Amino acid sequence: MTTIPTAPVPAPVSLYGFLTPKPGHSDDLRKLLMDLVEPSREHTGSLQYHLHEQADGRFFLYEVWRSQEDLDRHNATTLLRDFMAKVPEHMEGAPEAYFGVMRSPYPDNAT
């Protein structure tokens, strides 16, 4: 029996981290982040896109993308470029960001 080689299935990738607003900038940062949620969820390959607000005032953003290529496409959009140009004036320091390849299986019905 001959097996036909198949291309590897890309692993989902996740991006997550904390953003700390400057004093007096919480509302502005919240709006900028909230304005990303729905449009980002509509981008090809978006599996999860969530914004949380912590009790200490930091924001936690959690994204899961079907593949690195999908995340790269998302990061190249005007939406993200505009966000990245505006967000530094509302943040204290750099984002505390993490990136990883998802090793646990992602449900088939989520793609």
UniProtKB/TrEMBL annotation:
InterPro entries: ABM_dom, Dimeric_a/b-barrel. It comes from the Bacteria. Keywords: Monooxygenase, Oxidoreductase. One of its GO terms (molecular function) is monooxygenase activity. Pfam families: ABM. Residues 13-99 form the ABM domain. Transmembrane segments: none annotated. This is Antibiotic biosynthesis monooxygenase. It comes from Actinomadura montaniterrae.
